[in-house]
């Protein structure tokens, strides 16, 4: 493997699941994984958007069983390792074992930024299974730096090899990312990572700020194939880092080609910052709420932005998709009362 | 009226809330509070209220086993496995509020009658107590192919036991949805929300029913009747909106506000556990007293 200053995890086959309503097919996963492996991408995350066992009425049913997708991806990769995401409360150690059995080598255990203690069981199990283990602190904009450090230290104490600052809402500003990564760097011995969303067009700026402060693990989604407006665009990030003299070991031309030839074909429409994805970042709402809010807006005849802003006000956390319909119904009730 | 004597094992939040609830019932007589920490608020309050207290755990109680015929166990799954064995040997009944799942699952308005003579009854989980009645209400009318529940509770109301073993919640609740709720397949999700002030417990139930033609009116009525039955022993249990029926999918949004006895009102998740357990004990006591006559 080529020399690496920053280690990239490609999340399109997990985070991108949100963008296409969890409709990945084995064929798409095989094509993209093969090409990513060939381009020297070190880690490829594969799972339902909400992690293992995320297939549900709450989040959307998977078209293809994620275990079949994980197995297919693992079978075509020579060097790239397959990562899986697990949200305690949704998935359990049973699914983690199953994924490890069919070739997943990295476990990313995700909790809300203030709830790290629900991850101890899963981080410990991942270590027992011989997996590289990441603690994933989601909605990092919702907690002060001190709280984030305390929670990251918990994950470190459970045995995580890396802790990520996860900007699930794409709401963090570059100086906020800097403060968070710096504080973790000062207080933790393990690797620090950053996962951004481009809802405020800041994914790249935030990623660079994180790297400047010492983050060495970075998530990207090729062609922005991720929730909301997508993540830091992997092929662009690889180019920018190359210009900065920061090595990722990834083949830039191959990355550009697979973006154009494979990822763009998977996206039902090109990723752009629409008014709804912008509002996700502006209001600080979990990026996977996007399609659900649009659907509820249509169903109840209300403005999707009103739903998202209200969800932000209520400090709804990741996974609370059932609140979307609830809030939409309340807005209708309120509007009718005013009339 | 003759009362059935009961005791509580565990002097934490749940045990103490049970103690306050048991003061309000007329078929149960609380006699003893069994803990292991003499400094715990629960044991101190129990002493003040005039109950017999033990700070050396089940061993203390076993010296005076005549104090109670039904015991509530609000400790941990591990401790319960031991308590269950010891109490079974002396013929006591135990209502298990831990996730140990030794005895059969009980949700009062669904299957309480079937287990009146059991020695050990398990109360499943808070999410199970809140949602299984609704699944059952739907499966009473149609075949439920799949039921999924999402329980959202305030971070403050999730204790260290729940947090360290969150998989037990999803696994036990899923099993309860199938075994007691009557769904062919069950799934449970739990979410912790740290918002301040703490949110009330919220539960969403989704059921996918077999066949295209659902008797919507009958399904809605069945759900309403079931919610009313739960309200009999958990007054703060309610639907946030009418059930939503969309094709073969039934969605019900619930909210559980606690009674605020010992635990704050936002912890409806804990309240529904203690209220359900008291309800089970009351029915068992009535059943047993009737047999004696």
From TrEMBL, chain A:
Site (Transition state stabilizer) location in chain: 14
Alphabetized UniProt keyword annotations: Aromatic hydrocarbons catabolism, Lyase, Manganese, Metal-binding
Catalytic center residues: 18
Family statement drawn from the similarity comment of this UniProt entry: Belongs to the 4-hydroxy-2-oxovalerate aldolase family.
Protein name, UniProt field: 4-hydroxy-2-oxovalerate aldolase
Protein residues bound to Mn(2+): 15, 195, 197
Keyword Nucleotide-binding among UniProt keywords: no
Catalytic function, reaction form: (S)-4-hydroxy-2-oxopentanoate = acetaldehyde + pyruvate; (S)-4-hydroxy-2-oxohexanoate = propanal + pyruvate
TrEMBL record, chain B:
CDD domains cross-referenced by the UniProt entry: ALDH_C
Active-site residues annotated for this sequence: 126
Binding positions for NAD(+) per the UniProt entry: 11-14, 157-165, 269
Recorded catalytic activity of this chain's protein: acetaldehyde + NAD(+) + CoA = acetyl-CoA + NADH + H(+)
Residue ranges annotated for the Semialdehyde dehydrogenase NAD-binding domain, each copy included: 5-118
Known EC number: 1.2.1.10
Pfam families in the record: AcetDehyd-dimer (PF09290), Semialdhyde_dh (PF01118)
Group of enzyme by EC: oxidoreductase
InterPro entries on file: Acetaldehyde_dehydrogenase (IPR003361), Acetylaldehyde_DH_C (IPR015426), NAD(P)-bd_dom_sf (IPR036291), Semialdehyde_DH_NAD-bd (IPR000534)
GO MF annotations, alphabetized: acetaldehyde dehydrogenase (acetylating) activity; NAD binding
Entry keyword set: Aromatic hydrocarbons catabolism, NAD, Oxidoreductase
Similarity section: Belongs to the acetaldehyde dehydrogenase family.
Protein name from the UniProt record: Acetaldehyde dehydrogenase
Source organism of the structure: Scopulibacillus darangshiensis
Highest classification ranks of the organism: Bacteria, Bacillati, Bacillota, Bacilli, Bacillales
């Amino acid at each position: 493997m080529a020399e690496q200053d920053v280690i990239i995890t490609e999340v399109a086959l997990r985070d991108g699941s949100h963008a296409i309503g969890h409709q990945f097919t084995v064929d798409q996963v095989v094509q993209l994984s093969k090409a990513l492996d060939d381009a020297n991408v070190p880690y490829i995350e594969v799972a339902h958007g909400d992690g293992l066992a995320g297939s549900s009425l709450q989040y959307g049913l998977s078209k293809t069983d994620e275990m079949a997708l994980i197995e297919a991806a693992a079978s075509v990769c020579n060097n790239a390792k397959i990562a899986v995401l697990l949200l305690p409360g949704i998935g359990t150690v049973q699914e983690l074992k199953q994924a490890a059995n069919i070739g997943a080598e990295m476990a990313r255990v995700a909790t809300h930024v203030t709830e790290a203690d629900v991850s101890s069981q899963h981080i410990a199990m991942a270590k027992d299974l011989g997996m590289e283990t990441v603690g994933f602190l989601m909605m990092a904009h919702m907690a002060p730096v001190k709280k984030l450090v305390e929670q990251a230290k918990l994950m470190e104490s459970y045995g995580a090899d890396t802790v990520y600052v996860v900007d699930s809402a794409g709401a963090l500003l570059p100086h906020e990312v800097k403060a968070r990564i710096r504080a973790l760097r000062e207080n933790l011995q393990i690797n620090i990572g950053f996962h951004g969303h481009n809802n405020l067009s800041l994914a790249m700026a935030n990623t660079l700020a994180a790297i400047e402060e010492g983050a060495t693990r970075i998530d990207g989604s090729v062609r922005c194939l991720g929730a909301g407006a997508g993540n830091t665009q992997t092929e662009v990030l690889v180019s920018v880092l190359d210009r900065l003299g920061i090595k990722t070991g990834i083949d830039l031309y191959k990355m550009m080609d697979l973006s154009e030839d494979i990822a763009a074909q998977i996206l039902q429409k090109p990723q752009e910052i629409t008014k709804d994805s912008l509002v996700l970042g502006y209001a600080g709402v979990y990026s996977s709420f996007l399609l659900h809010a649009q659907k509820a807006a249509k169903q109840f005849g209300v403005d999707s932005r009103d739903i998202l802003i209200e969800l932000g006000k209520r400090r709804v956390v990741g996974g609370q998709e059932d609140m979307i319909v609830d809030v939409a119904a309340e807005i209708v009730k309120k509007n009718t009362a005013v009339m | 009226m003759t009362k059935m004597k009961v005791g509580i094992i565990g002097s934490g939040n749940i045990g103490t809330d049970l103690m306050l609830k048991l003061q309000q019932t007329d078929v149960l007589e609380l006699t003893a509070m069994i803990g292991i920490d003499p400094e715990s608020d629960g044991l101190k309050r129990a002493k003040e209220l005039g109950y017999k207290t033990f700070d050396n755990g089940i061993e203390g109680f076993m010296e005076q086993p005549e104090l109670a015929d039904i015991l509530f166990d609000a400790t941990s799954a591990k401790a319960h496995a031991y308590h269950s064995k010891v109490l079974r040997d002396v013929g006591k009944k135990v209502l298990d509020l831990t996730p140990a799942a030794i005895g059969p699952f009980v949700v009062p308005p669904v299957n309480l009658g079937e287990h009146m003579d059991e020695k050990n009854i398990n109360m499943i989980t808070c999410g199970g107590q809140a949602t299984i009645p609704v699944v059952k209400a739907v499966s009473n009318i149609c075949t439920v192919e799949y039921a999924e529940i999402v329980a959202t509770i305030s971070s403050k109301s999730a204790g260290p036991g729940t947090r360290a073993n969150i998989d037990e919640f999803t696994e036990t609740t899923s099993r309860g949805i199938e075994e007691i709720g009557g769904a062919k397949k069950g799934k449970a999700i739990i979410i912790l929300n740290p918002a301040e002030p703490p949110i009330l417990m919220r539960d969403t139930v989704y059921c996918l029913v077999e066949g295209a033609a659902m008797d919507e009116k009958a399904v809605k009525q069945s759900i309403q009747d079931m919610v009313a039955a739960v309200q009999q022993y958990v007054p703060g249990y309610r639907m946030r909106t009418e059930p939503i029926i969309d094709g073969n999918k039934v969605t019900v949004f619930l909210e559980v506000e606690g009674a605020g006895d010992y635990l704050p009102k936002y912890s409806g998740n804990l309240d529904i556990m203690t209220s359900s357990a008291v309800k089970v004990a009351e029915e068992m006591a009535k059943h047993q007293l009737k047999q004696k006559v």
